[in-house]
């Protein structure tokens, strides 16, 4: 027999799960990629991504710490529904990573994590100061994994040798700095990081395909992104998953079938008007991948991060 108190907890947990499922967009009608290779990325925004009085999707009656296993379970469900080959997370507290890792490893994934900074509770509640990036792959991840500071003391890229099917690849979870025009200390940081990352990627590509996934904190038309795109004025080596989305074609070159563009991956209602932009990317080395496609999942204004789940697909060239 289930006691009344336990039944209530089950109902509360079920309610939280249903709400979070909607906000992650895992029941999107575009649930499947039509391609052979799949990729999944999410900037989680830590576990305190809200302020007092804001709407949020934590379990009713709990503080932010109550969401860690619940949100972790929903991320695992979203990944399970899509079955991506490679998964990356940004702004992930180590407690969140532990829950997600345990579940995905049980499904056959391999995992690695790097703390990008020590936050002393700024982004992670419950005394958890590790805050960083995670990388999951269906294939084994070589050790040691690589961390790249790209110019300062924080880690901006977690990379590892893994594989897509039988082919070795270099995969990275990337999080570049915000280039705040009102903060002189930020001037040029992101551009310098992007330059170093693009150079590293070109070197890796001499021997294997390269996958860069994450929050680049720049919009597609920002000049810094030319370092990655291989077309539309870019000087890089990559295609981007959502570059052929005709709903976002206003900036494409005349007559082009693709451009530096894509669906919104970040939104915030803290500004007027609300801020909406694409700053998350799934970059795939253009010489190796074809038929790229992307899908940004919008879960409404009540959600658990200021970013959206971003999924991509591709085939081998």
TrEMBL record:
The keyword Cell inner membrane does not apply. Residues 236-275 are annotated as: Disordered. Residues 71-307 form the Endonuclease/exonuclease/phosphatase domain. GO terms for molecular function: endonuclease activity. Keywords: Endonuclease, Hydrolase, Nuclease. The keyword Hydrolase applies. Pfam families: Exo_endo_phos. PANTHER family: CALCOFLUOR WHITE HYPERSENSITIVE PROTEIN PRECURSOR (PTHR14859), PGAP2-INTERACTING PROTEIN (PTHR14859:SF1). This is Endonuclease/exonuclease/phosphatase family protein. It comes from Streptomyces iconiensis.
